[in-house]
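On clarity, I found the account of how folds are encoded harder to follow than it need be. For illustration, here is how one protein appears when written out as sequence plus structure tokens.
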Amino acid sequence: MKRPECVAVIGVGVIGASVGWNLSRHGVEVVFIDAGQPGEGVTNWSFSWVNASNKTARKSYFDLNVAAMAAHRELAGIIGPDSWWYPSGHLRWADDPAAEAKFLETAELLTGWDYRVEMYTGAEVRSRLEPALTMPDDVPVLFYPDEAWVHGRHLVGRLVGQSVASGAELRSGNAVCDIGTGADGSTRSVALSDGSRLDVDIVVNAAGPSASHVARLVARHLPMRREPGIVTRLDCAQVPVHRAMHAPHIEIRPDGDTSVVLHSREIDALIDTGEDPGQLARLLHESARHVVPELGNSRIAETRVVDRPIPADGWPSVGAVPSVPGYYEAVSHSGITLGPVIGRLLASEILSGKRDELLTDFRPERFSS
């Protein structure tokens, strides 16, 4: 297979940055293209929880996420963990019997798959892990010690910065208007909103929520699911929690020394009811205060509603599209978890033409052009 001379990576979130970084370190000329700024889109407005415990619907998807967790640890060893990598584990508990039974059943399944799970009572969690929490003494709490959270914007900045230092180019603030193809249908160029046109051998569509639009530029049909989510950041004088957690009705994690991130699927369900995002943020804050009373003194700093980049069937779309030589997709929800492993596997496929078995169930050709 001919080695590519220039690869355009469209979309510089965590997945696009990971693909470009892996190619750049193998000496490939990479051009990062983003309509906004690197890491400022969905990557910056995600709960950013690195896990496989919530990925049990399909064993192959679970296996891909386990590989992704290992890829994060490897990446931290290569580029350094500071400012982006927080492997402090994850807590989950519930306040109703049905939800509790479901997550205990999942924990049993995960144990059978050799995934580490520890069980504590609420009293033990407060004494050993999170003294600021309010929870019943006898409530069962699952602790997943191998899970983590990531500061996505900092990770993207590190990956792009190292790539640019190795010769990659960054074209931020530029939308892709056209993808030119040759007589054989293969990718040849990309036209940008600043009027420039770049000659390229390979195009990687890592455009997140805009991936279907980019796909249409090569007459490719990539159906996407509409699933908006809302994330709120709180400013805190001192962050009272040490790790990511799924508490009843609310998800909470640290976001550095003076910030906390909040998310809730229950609040997401209110987005399309016309409720003001500011009111939704206040609901998130109130739910969090019931779990961590100290957060009652914090201030809502930022709130954003974003569309998650989820292909229509819910699974990633990663790899070459045979009908368009030179065009690849790297589109998935859970990009924070999957970014490093997708970056490694797709870069290897671009360079060698070999398909990794981890991606067998997630090939783009399952969607007809």
User: Anything to note?
Assistant: The chain has a mean pLDDT of 97. Residues 211 and 306 are 14 Å apart (CA to CA). The radius of gyration is 21 Å. DSSP finds nine helices and 22 strands in the chain.
